[in-house]
Amino acid sequence: MGDTVGSSNSNASTTGRATSRWSLQGMTALVTGGTRGIGHAVVVELAALGASVHTCSRKEDDLTECLKKWASLGFHVTGSVCDVSVREQRDRLIRDVSSTFDGKLSILVNNAGTNVTKPTIEYTAEEYSFIMATNLESAYHLCQLAHPLLKASGAGSIVFVSSVSGVTAVNSGTVYAATKGAINQITKNLACEWAKDNIRTNSVAPWYIKTSLVENALQNKIFLQKIVDRTPMRRVGEPEEVSSLVAYLCLPAASYITGQVISVDGGMTINGGLYTSG
């Protein structure tokens, strides 16, 4: 009878450990640009898995509306108005996060981004600087600022929302592609440099996803067909198909995964030209 009880306790303990590997309960997260598109989906995904989430948006009305909706769903989400392209506002955002989460941060999701698509020779200096500041400089600086908080958590995870344009050539614009290629390399460098601090770093690289950033382009049926023809799965993706991977990379179950750039692209980046028609 003693053996039976011991076995039961052991099974319960094993079940508990297995469950905790697939939960973010008790963890804290910062998700930039969390009121729309992929960022919104990431906030919902992390909060549903038990994390307390802080997010930001340039638009106060959007942020207020989302916070009310998330509260009605029982999610623990707070927020700050912040334009991540502005250094002083990034400083203030991390101060807010540190205050909200008592100096510890489990997860940083660098999601906020922008784009201007045009031929390379037509970019103005202002456009170049704006895209670089929003996509690259902000993510790099937020990692710097968040490092002490991530280290203090004991097991930190950084996830960059990159793009397949940082992996292969697509028609999204050279400047945007340059920021995403740089983010992919930062991912690898930080994974090695900050492993000693028990901070993992990964990137997800989406192809065309149904978000406000590309909705106008996808309304062009000819353009949409070109995207579909290049994609073995014959469709564009949904924000939730990206956020699920982001969440997985933050879970304890992913504790040995770091320095990776994982495409979420319906097979586009491995398409050698065989799948170009229905």
Automatic annotation (TrEMBL):
Keyword flag Isomerase: no
One family name in Pfam for this protein: adh_short_C2
GO terms of molecular function: oxidoreductase activity
Superkingdom, taxonomy of origin: Eukaryota
Entry-linked InterPro entries: NAD(P)-bd_dom_sf, Sc_DH/Rdtase_CS, SDR_fam, TR
Keywords: NADP, Oxidoreductase
PROSITE patterns: ADH_SHORT (PS00061)
Name of this chain's protein: Tropinone reductase
Gene source species: Canna indica
